[in-house]
Amino acid sequence: LLADTAGLEEARKGSIAIDGALEIVYSQVASIDDGLVSQRREFLLADTSDIVTLEGALLDGSTAPDRQRLSGDGWTRIDFAHPEELLELRGGGGADEIRVGTLASDYRASLSITGDQGEDRIVQIGDVTLGDAAGPGDLYYDAESIEVAGSIVTGGGMVEFHGLARLVGDLSIDSRTADGGSGGLLSGDIRFTGRLESSEPGHFRLSLEAGSGNIFFADVVGDSRPLETLEIGSAQDVESTDTVWLAGDLIQHAGSGVK
Fold first, then answer.
1. How far apart, in whole angstroms, are the C-alpha atoms of residue 93 and residue 213?
2. pLDDT of residue 1
3. Are 191 and 167 spatial neighbours (Cβ–Cβ below 8 Å)?
4. How many Å apart are CA 128 and CA 24, to the nearest integer?
5. 221: which strand partners?
6. pLDDT tens, 77-129?
7. Which is it for strands 139-153 and 110-114: parallel, antiparallel or unpaired?
8. Mean pLDDT lowest among 39-48, 81-90, 136-145, 158-167
9. How many CA atoms lie within 13 Å of 145's alpha carbon, on the beta-carbon side?
10. What confidence category does residue 34 fall into, taking pLDDT thresholds of 50, 70 and 90?
């Protein structure tokens, strides 16, 4: 099974296409448990304004290690097996809010979440860990507003925020390889392609570890909503194309560029 795509057309109704050859259509179904193994999964939300949550599925009150859950008010709840390479969630039309909770413990594939059309919002409300020996585990968030706190750890995969990134708590990002770069493998870059700010001016710490990868700030950092502290633990190169505004300190332990 190479690909598994679900089109969520409206609440409690939709379809799942499997490798382009088999289509499963459902209507007025409260929940789906999909144990099919695939390399890639893609979920496309309807052209309405939706609030959905992606998180580890619960089994007998505990998070199942090999299942994720996609759910929302009035929606068909979908529990599904982890893809091996990539999980992609697209917002479609409408002003969507996509929440990312703590994923199941065995999840290691790449994760891509895009708002598509409309004024969309991504909110990370749990820690995210991606990547293993089989793959680095990239993380890509693309929306008009991205609210994030906690931790993001990849196994050498890239981390990219495309849109306004707003810290709602302390955030640490570690894109180093599992061996810390000692094995000669390149670590992933950390990229902020839009503005970066704090939801509470003068609060919250951003800690970045890119190992042999690079760190890139493509827009203003802070400005009228400065972070408290920016700490760069490791990087090959650090580049900022605009001003970095902080209430506290800029601490850079390694890497050329901003200091």
1. 34
2. 43
3. no
4. 30
5. 196, 244
6. 888 888 888 999 888 778 889 999 988 888 889 999 998 887 899 999 889 99
7. parallel
8. 39-48
9. 16
10. confident
Residues linked to residue 86 through DSSP beta bridges, in sequence order: 40, 110
Q: Phi-psi bin for 133: left (phi > 0), alpha (psi -120 to 50), beta? A: alpha
List the beta strands (DSSP E) in 35-158.
38-44, 51-59, 62-72, 77-81, 83-90, 97-100, 110-114, 121-124, 128-129, 139-153
Look at the chain and count its residues.
Answer: 259
**What span, in angstroms and rounded, lies between the C-alpha atoms of 152 and 136?**
13
Strands 38-44, 3-10: parallel, antiparallel or unpaired by DSSP? parallel
Residue given tokens 């990539």 in the structure block = 86
Looking up tokens 């981390």 gives 159
Q: Which amino acid is at 16?
A: I
Q: Which of 54, 168, 141, 46 is nearest to 96 (CA)?
A: 46
Of 57, 92, 50, 103, nearest to 74 (Cα)?
A: 50
State the CB neighbour count (10 A cutoff) for residue 60. Answer: 5
Pairing of strands 38-44, 83-90: parallel
Q: What angle do CA 7, 9, 14 make, to 5 degrees?
A: 65
Tokens (6 digits) for 28: 């007025």
> What is the Cα–Cα distance from 225 to 82, expressed in whole angstroms?
38
What's the rounded Cα separation, in Å, for the pair 196 and 242? 11
DSSP code per residue over 175-189: ---TTTTTTSPPPPP
Q: Which of 226, 156, 164 is CA-nearest to residue 193?
A: 164
Instruction: Tell me the two tokens of residue 110.
Output: 């790449």
